[in-house]
Amino acid sequence: MKIKLPFLLAVCVCFMTFYSANSQNIKPSISLIKYNDNVNAPLNSKELKQINEVYGDKSNEYVLNRPQRLKDIKNLLRNRIEIKLISNPNDQKQCPLLSEVPLLNYYVSDLRRDTVFNPQTFNPLKYLFNVNGLSGEMYRVDNTNYFIIIKSQFQ
Predict the structure, then answer these.
(1) Reading across the β-sheet that carries 137-140, which strands appear in turn?
(2) What are phi and psi of 3, to 5 degrees?
(3) Which residues are the signal sequence here (predicted)?
(4) How far apart are CA 137 and CA 134, in angstroms?
(5) pLDDT tens per residue, range 10-31
(6) Is 84 within 8 Å of 149 (Cβ atoms)?
(7) 3-class DSSP state for residue 63?
(8) How far is it between the farthest Cα atoms of the chain?
């Protein structure tokens, strides 16, 4: 009987350790993307210009004639990207610089970065931001107090 009790205790400890380790690896379920009603509205002239700047003569093929892709881009431009001026250094966080983000120049090979940052004319589609992550992302515009905040598509 003395041998069985330690063996049973060891088996229980191993089972509990295994169960505890595996329960921490459970990934949270991802909910469906919820779109605001504003994605159903037609593109405005600024949005169409932004798409054409990045996709050039492929705009129809890769965006405008693909309803889901167009909806995702409208959602990104209208609901998920925020440009925020954060002047107080205590409120600023370390994050990648805009200059470190590659350009999306697959469709328009001579696409260039803006030499001067203007929040009103900034085209976020030009950059390969991580827009599909589970959490949001933030980037700092070089030599400014502007931050580009990309909200998660699952929020």
Answers:
(1) 81-85, 146-150, 137-140
(2) -75, -35
(3) 1-23
(4) 9
(5) 555 555 555 555 555 555 555 6
(6) yes
(7) helix
(8) 83
